[in-house]
């Protein structure tokens, strides 16, 4: 198989090239001539059947190692499409604890109205899962690397458990991206991503994708055709452009993050760094085995708690205080204040999200510049 950098640029390209164009042109047309196709195959923008969609589906399937893939209008469109395809009223889901806030929000606020229920699992403790099964359990849902503490789920045990118990195994691979992990090759049934993050990688587009067998992806597409979860033509163009540098970007971000995490873990103002590349990370050995590089995401806790964290964030000059991740601009956030503010103080404490915890998405800036900025901001905290 060719290297990721080659596939991210060429896989799925139309041949012969469209009007000899090297880059896929934007097909800014909602409708195509009708030739008697069945509904879901009609050439229509909402049905994701345009040339822009076809190229992206093939390219993403290639990157994920799946038979088929589909791009969607956002990561949440991918998640709602997947959950509404495999779960019906009365069904039950096993869900990793501390999943992305939007996912728990969807389950708690929307899918609960349809009578879809879930129980959370500790993704590190396979022995505890069996007793949580009910006769209506249909699927198990985890994230490759959890937010914000970068816990790496026991992916192999989840696949085995799902197969033994006839469950659909679903994984949100957003934090790792296919540059680091291809869960389909580990045996997962469905992989989904928020392409808003690493796949597009430029902080300028909301998009998502799902990957799996042709049969499963078709089922999800049919659900999204009804819900209206497609990506528009210009969005497809941006995603295809962003994707081309996936391998380069993630390799740089991984290298930078590894250096930064090591340096921060030796700093007196930092109580603890969570990064899969550090030997003290509880799943470091698994990360070495299952991931390519350790990625650009980390979190760390300041000894001085809330006030130190706020002082530190205010003193940074390069990293921008904002949620989201995976782009050229380094983004930094205090999860207790932003991403996880929907949780109660007690829930946050249980999930290890303390007031002084900081999540850092390492961007594409020079590593020395980022380190200097972080150390200078930390210096202003200790100097207090
Ligand atoms: C951002 C994110 C999502 C949601 O994606 P959108 O593109 O914002 O809809 C889902 N899962 C994870 C892990 C995310 O970080």
Tell me what the structure shows:
The protein is an alpha/beta fold. It has 2 domains: 4-243, 3-Layer(aba) Sandwich (Aspartate Aminotransferase, domain 2), CATH 3.40.640.10; 248-382, Aspartate Aminotransferase, domain 1, CATH 3.90.1150.10. The protein contains 14 helices and 12 strands. The protein has helices at 4-10, 51-64, 75-86, 101-110, 155-164, 177-180, 183-186, 214-227, 233-243, 246-265, 284-290, 305-315, 345-350, 367-382; strands at 68-72, 92-96, 117-121, 137-143, 168-172, 190-194, 208-212, 270-274, 297-302, 320-321, 331-333, 357-361. The protein has a 7-stranded mixed beta sheet with strand order 1-7-6-5-4-2-3, with helices on both faces. It has a 5-stranded mixed beta sheet with strand order 8-9-12-11-10. Helix 1 (4-10) packs antiparallel against helix 2 (51-64) and helix 3 (75-86) crosses helix 8 (214-227). It is globular. The mean pLDDT is 96. Bound molecules: pyridoxal-5'-phosphate. Pyridoxal-5'-phosphate is lined by residues 74-76, 100, 102, 143, 147, 172, 174-175, 194, 196-197, 206, 208. Residues 74-76, 100, 102, 143, 147, 172, 174-175, 194, 196-197, 206, 208 line the site of pyridoxal-5'-phosphate.
